[in-house]
Amino acid sequence: MKIQSNQLLGLAPWGLLCLWTQVVEACPTAPGSFSIPSLRAGFPLQSHPSRSLNSRAAGNGACKLKPTSVDLSEGVGATDQTFAPSTGTLNAYMIFVDFPDAPASEATEELHQLFVPGAPDWYTKSSFGQLSLDITTDTSRFYRMPKASTSYPYDRGITSELLAEYIQDALDSVGKAINFAGTDVLYIVPTKAAKHISFSPTYMGELTAGDGTIISKTVTFGQDAPDSWGFLVMNHETGHTMGLPDLYPSSDTGDSTTMYVGGHDIMGLISGALPDYFAWHKWKLGWFSDDQFDCVDGAGSTTHTITPVGTKEGVKGVVVRRDESTAIVAEVRTKDGADSSACSTGVLVYTVSSSTGSGQGPIRVHDATPSSGGCGGYELNDAHFTTETGRETFVSEDGVKITVVGQKGDEYTIAVEVA
């Protein structure tokens, strides 16, 4: 769940609260005031007349969508906001805290092993070695927080101001004992005795540590880590620090967590069957290059051969640009990489909107097998198009037709027709 600047969103009260991880930006907010952006039933449809443009441009990045002003826009390129590095080394620091009403009885090493080496290894695999998550950890102690765990309103809907207070209390408890210089992301891990600290929000604002270091990104873990998600919640939340949005609905209306993308991409359902990032996200993070995407920007018919997102080489996606902020993308999902437990494989087709904010459905998967019941527990997990009769063709409402015309091993060939 993403709390945007000048907005507060109530936290879901039902039992699966740990599903609703949260990103919080530094901003002045008034407790109790709620502003929830309305969910759109679909992306706006526009007419797209034939244009005398090259209908297939490989490798020039022509179909990139520019970032917009919405929260964690899916646009690819520089924004006004600074994010943690997504290539090279991301330097993180991990500390542990306990509370007067919840003193720790476990060892810090036990909590450390919950995340490491699992989360760094996941990034190494998904990024093909292009991102190293380097976590420096102070396992010498639990730093005692100044207030009871129940004084932090995790059960009542935490605001950006109150989360900042929690983080600053932790930093003040550390004082000058740690040199945080060079830290891109701070991880704060509470003792398992602090049951009240239930879920894992990310704070995107700046705070000052006791040694004078400005901490610009902080993930505050909760009991959803040891109780539900394990190290994968670190990969989800760190994704926010690198600029990726939530792909599940952030409203508290009871909408299914998987309504937009199913179990695809760890920025959706953390425990999803196909957690590897969308090809679009790997492009956005710098793990795939411009020349690994074919651009379709105009009327005509073209064919393309695509290789899986879980492998490093080859064309990773076909991007059919519809307007300045919308594109339809086709990629291939197999059991390679982070998707080794996939219950379905094939060509995945989805719409990306750079003008739709985090938690509002900026990516929406198109289902090749609607009302099938899905696999792995969720409808969209088997959304993939294949050469099988009846599930080989996607047709959009605005004149885009994508057909799977061939398969050779894990490589798929598609035909794209744009009216």
Give a brief outline of the structure.
With 419 residues, this protein is an alpha/beta fold. The chain has six helices and 20 strands.
Could you explain the architecture of this structure?
The protein has 419 residues and is of the alpha/beta class. It has helices at residues 108-115, 118-126, 160-174, 224-229, 232-241, 279-284, and strands at residues 2-3, 22-24, 57-58, 88-98, 131-137, 143-144, 185-190, 201-203, 207-208, 214-215, 218-220, 293-296, 300-306, 317-323, 326-333, 346-353, 363-366, 393-395, 400-408, 411-418. The strands form four sheets. Strands 1, 2, 4, 5, 6, 7, 8 and 11 form an eight-stranded mixed beta sheet that branches. A six-stranded mixed beta sheet has the order 3-12-14-15-16-17, with no helix packed on it. The protein is elongated.
